[in-house]
């Protein structure tokens, strides 16, 4: 972040608060909204009434991907996350167990929250890209409910599942409100002397990206730093690498998640499900209706078939694409089930399927046998700010709720993987600005 950005953002944030205070009592949009019959999430519900109308969210007119400074103060920052996790652990009476599992490169705590005693392990991460923030709030909603509810459903989940969440797993990027973490190549080579003199990793940012200037504070796309070999240590000959090659665990943040994943795999035999919560461009439209924006894209496929991919053959016996497809169908069905009441939840599409990204967390953990689910809700902070925070957090929550219910009950195994292939593909990005051009090109696949 340039020194100029933060003061501007603070000013805008203040203005937004004023706007909400002055307009909230006049328009009262929440009153006109149809009832939503899911158990209400405690943590973010109070902000819902301050959000714009669904009609404004859905109507695809002009849309800009040009990065700009927008208010984000309603999202949970790192300090607030620590306080909220502490509160949830306390009021749950220990049902939710919060633990510091590591630190970011700049020393910020990375926490995990564990709930349930079931035999199926589910790992959920959010904010690996620090400008993609709704996943963290959806996780807090989920933990808050699951930690305290005495409903039959919550009890069933806690008996069948062991859920481990690592919200805001890239806290340095999150505090800078940018995609990359805060780590220089010099720091990497100091830690791994065998890499001295080699070219920096291909996913090292030193220029401008999504409106953020990395020249004075370089960083990495942490979501290209995973490797399906969970014991991999960095080797000079594997640099600079490329998007179709595995990563290296050179970022402290990916290492923390890898360590938690390995611990769960050792404890449970395998990690049943891995979910990673992201945002994509703001201006994708529905394939059959260019007048409506996509609310959420999902996916369960991140790598080519390992059976026929040189170097990945040994992962083929564990890789289970059909299970990932079933998990995604559960997400899709849950959101379609809400679409009658609130059409915004029906605009769900399939994320591009022609990817081979073994350096992503999802790709690496899928190769280790986990069912995998990618959430990509609409609009990163540089294009939407917090404007649709509540409804997008709700969309993530509904998807997670449906998927976890299906895993807890075992119903997931009855879902048809072919239904996944029938989910409509994402339509085009109709946005304007340089970033829209990038999203329309092949770079799209690397920027979400
Ligand atoms: Zn992302």
Summarize the structure.
This protein is an alpha/beta fold and 448 residues long.
- State the assembly state of the protein chains: single chain
Number of continuous helical runs: 15
Kindly give the count of domains: 1
At CATH level 3, the topology is Aminopeptidase
- Tally of extended strands? 14
Level-1 CATH class name? Alpha Beta
Helical content stands at 25-40%
pLDDT averaged residue by residue: 90
- The CATH homology group name: Zn peptidases
Unreliable stretches (pLDDT < 50, length at least 5) are: 1-37
- Main sheet specs: 8 strands, mixed
Strand order in the largest sheet: 1-2-4-3-9-14-12-13
Ligands bound to this protein structure = zinc ion
Order of helices and strands: HHHEEEHHEHHEEEEHEEEEHEHEHHHHH
So what's the overall shape? globular
The CATH architecture name reads 3-Layer(aba) Sandwich
SS strand fraction: 5-15%
By secondary-structure content and strand pairing, the structural class works out as alpha/beta
Task: Please give the radius of gyration in angstroms.
Answer: 21 Å
Span of the ends, CA to CA: 19 Å
Task: Explain what the structure shows.
Keywords: Carboxypeptidase, Hydrolase, Metalloprotease, Protease, Signal, Zinc. This is Zinc carboxypeptidase. GO terms for molecular function: metallocarboxypeptidase activity; zinc ion binding. Residues 71-448 form the Peptidase M14 domain. Belongs to the peptidase M14 family. With 448 residues, this protein is an alpha/beta fold. It has one domain: Aminopeptidase (3-Layer(aba) Sandwich). Helices cover 36% and strands 15% of the residues. The chain is built from 15 helices and 14 strands. The chain has helices at residues 5-27, 54-58, 78-91, 134-148, 152-160, 171-175, 185-191, 252-268, 321-339, 361-367, 381-384, 389-409, 417-421, 434-440, 444-447, and strands at residues 96-103, 109-115, 120-126, 161-166, 204-205, 208-209, 212-213, 219-220, 273-280, 285-286, 289-293, 296-299, 348-350, 371-378. The strands form four sheets. An eight-stranded mixed β-sheet has the order 1-2-4-3-9-14-12-13, with helices on both faces. A two-stranded antiparallel sheet has the order 5-8. Strands 6-7 form a two-stranded antiparallel sheet. A hairpin with a 2-residue loop joins strand 6 and strand 7 (212-213). Helix 3 packs parallel to helix 4 (134-148), helix 4 crosses helix 12 and helix 5 (152-160) packs across helix 12 (389-409). The protein binds zinc ion (ZN). Zinc ion binds at residues 129, 132, 278, 448. The site of zinc ion has 4 residues, from loops.
